[in-house]
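Exam revision sheet. Question 4 asks you to relate a sequence to its structure. Input first:
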Amino acid sequence: MEPRAMAEPVVPKRRRLGFSEIPRKVRWIIYANAAGGVGFGYLMIFITAYYPQIGIGSGTIGLILGAEGASMVVCAVPLGIYSDRRGRKSPLLVASAVLPPTILVFAFTTELRWLVLAAVVAGVAEGGFLATWNAIIADQTTTEQRNAAFALSFILGNVAGGLGFALPILFPGLEAWTGLDSRAVHVTVLLVTDAFGFLVPIALIVLLRNYRETLPVRGARPRGTDWKPLLKFSSLNGLIGLGAGFFIPLVTTWLYLKYGVPDTWSGPLLALSNITIGLSAVVSAALARRYGPVRAIVMATGTSTAFLLSLAFLTSPVVAAGFYLVRAALMNMSAPIADSFLMGIVSPEQRGLASAVNSIIWRLPNSITTVFGGLLMQAGNYDLPIFLATAFYAAFVSGFYAVFRNVKPTT
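Answer key, structure tokens:
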């Protein structure tokens, strides 16, 4: 018998660190899209924190935000179906090109009809983005790469938005240095930050010029949609949208009405919140690997809900700001995990539709409750929106675990 050859020692493959496992082109697409986040972040402060200071009521602010969400709801499903059947690149490019000129409307008028119209157009653009963004990332990544890709997208989007939120802290100095009044500084900064948004579609055109999609054959009968996992996920996620609408989009308005905190402080708070959210998402992929996506989502969301409820009982704006930061970090730690989980439980041919449907079922109730949240705050009921949000968050946590505890992504 011949002697057996000595086997070479098996060296375990070292896990790649950070986001290097994400395909290079996908990373650059995410980087390019983040450039528009600064202007969008500042726009949210402009609407929710600056408008109350110039006499625009919280009910009107809720109407503007609600109109944007409603138009997104109407357009997202048709755009999602289009992206599945005709490709994701065109809707994404059009959406990224429409949003920057729409933001300019908020810089030049305070007439309600034009603000609502601009919000409606922005909602259409958001519908196009939401119907394509997650799907175009998922199509270019494997199941193993997807958590990291969604985490990177989430991190950069929140950090860029955080920079936009932080800008009002500079305004007192800018007003003293330039001699401009508050309105001039607010509007000028909106114009400058929006300029970055005009670069996004140009960068995406360059990055996606060689992108080829596998499309269904024209005339072929479309594959049937398995609605069960999608509707289970989306209906539960809708509870989060329903609860969040009462309070989260109006947190800077709440700080101003309850504590008298102006945007020069609430803006930087949201900036710090977004940066904290982004940093917390760094560990989301590791959290999902260790505990599984479902348990990771439940753990983060459940702990966040406790901090949300506590806001109603605090009397110090400083302490409330600290608790809000923790709440936001915990809540949004689960967001990239949830996006990746959804893309893994539906078929690749249905990802655009899935993104659209999930966004609609989240955003429709969110848009409605944002209007009610604004009206409640306008009537002096500052903490009731927090209690309502907490109740729906708690329902999501228990329902999500009960339905998906034994489900694993397969695509």
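Marking note for examiners. Confidence is low (pLDDT under 50) at residues 1-17.
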